[in-house]
Amino acid sequence: AQRDRPPYHTATAFLLAGTKKVIITARKSGGEQGIDQAVRKLNQIPGVAGPAVGIQANAANTEEIAKLVDEVRKSDGKLDILVANAGATWRGPFEPTPDWSSQKILDLNVHPIPLLEAAGTSQDPSRVIIVSSVAGVNVPHVGENGTIMYLVSKAVANHLVRNFAVELGNITTNAVAPGFFPSKLANGLIENLGGRDKLSSEVPHGRVGEPEDIAGVMIYLCSPAANYINGVDIAVDGGRRLGIGSSEAVVETCVHHPAHILANA
């Protein structure tokens, strides 16, 4: 909910674009990461079309999702745009990954999507956006910096987008798939991979992502210009996925794990 984070800028962009009301949700209400502070900041922005409202809910909890949907219906009755943005990750080698970490990632990155979609689409929103990741279509990192269950969860999210696009008909469902954007979720991995400057040098565009980059794509997908865009995942990574592979990391991993070579031969 901080000002330098993509969700805050996305909410700001929707308000500035003329949205009558933006409802945001988070697991916490108070503190730096809570929705109370974010709502207060959003409502202080000059020139916005409507208010921001916060509803506390844990997206990994089925009962709290139901409560969230009920609160939205009580306050507005109709939902026009649904954005599913919650996410978690776990970084490290594949073998010692604890079971609970995999379950936590799937509970937050995958489980809420169909529940929110079903609840939201009963009110016929015109647009559904799921925040995925370029990690859902490639294998950017392995070994010590591996995020295998995160990759799996985002691949599932991308496929859910395609299924919903067919299932829901005229309600468009698309994914925004960011690359590296400084955030609480990504900062640790960015540091481990050499820092912001090193990653910027690997991007054809010459920099890592800024929150406005994601917000702009979301506004486009919810505009009349995107009426016929349905079931796609749009990579927002400055082209890094096209120029950087994981071959060196794979070779290094195979050297340290020769048994894997025998098993896969």
From TrEMBL:
Keyword tags: NADP, Oxidoreductase
Source taxon at top rank: Eukaryota
Coiled-coil zones: none
InterPro entries: NAD(P)-bd_dom_sf, SDR_fam, Sec_Metab_Biosynth_SDR
GO molecular function, a single term: oxidoreductase activity
Family of the protein in this entry: Belongs to the short-chain dehydrogenases/reductases (SDR) family.
UniProt name for this protein: Rhamnolipids biosynthesis 3-oxoacyl-[acyl-carrier-protein] reductase
